[in-house]
């Protein structure tokens, strides 16, 4: 097997006496779309933050493209990386196109070229050129999400992270966003890691699924095996039953 894009071994992270990650082992192959699911507060965001070096793990190793990244993601990796944050995280004081082209401008691309790239990225997520000169506050929540997705893809990254990409969207717009993510992952040939509660996202975006519970990945497998799995954690997650191994009191 070729070197995985992301490789995590024995990752542990506690807050005070409470372990959140309790020995995570995970490989994400290049060009693969992995979706991580799990109940609220199970540590999905903490795992993502540790992988990116935004948070320091207590133990374990992280390798990105075969390079040790335990103390933080290498610059070379971050340059090829795009992220859609849960809340969108657009800069209010910048027009949409400058938000979308932020990285490109930062890297010294001439403004007219960067603007053209931003407009193309906006078009890829179904937003017209008219939106380019508006400010984030002038957009609806769904449009902001799409603009944030345009920003994540504008620099044509080879690794993409999506944190709750459909949270707060109506089901139709959620489908649009899921389709866009899948299209971008396929079009860019990118490696993608998505965190979600949304089963539709799992179905539309995942090649492989990992279920986080009690600090560990309880189940990982191809998306085709997810819905037919007889693992009680997976079954409870899919049916949304309150009774089962996943406690509802957290
Ligand atoms: N900086 C922090 N300090 C203390 N505790 C934290 C910190 N960040 C996260 N936690 C705790 O870690 C646990 C996991 O949080 P995390 O945000 O990773 O959950 P999640 O699975 O992403 O949840 P959700 O699906 O609700 O967003 C929670 O109990 C949370 O309170």
Automatic annotation (TrEMBL):
Pfam family name, one: ABC_tran
Keywords linked to the UniProt accession: ATP-binding, Nucleotide-binding, Transport
GO molecular function per UniProt: ATP binding; ATP hydrolysis activity
Taxonomic superkingdom: Bacteria
ABC transporter domain span: 6-239
UniProt xrefs under InterPro entries: AAA+_ATPase (IPR003593), ABC_transporter-like_ATP-bd (IPR003439), ABC_transporter-like_CS (IPR017871), P-loop_NTPase (IPR027417)
PANTHER family, per database record: PROTEIN TRIGALACTOSYLDIACYLGLYCEROL 3, CHLOROPLASTIC
Protein name: ABC-type transport system involved
Organism of provenance: Rubellimicrobium thermophilum DSM 16684
Taxonomic lineage of the native organism: Bacteria, Pseudomonadati, Pseudomonadota, Alphaproteobacteria, Rhodobacterales
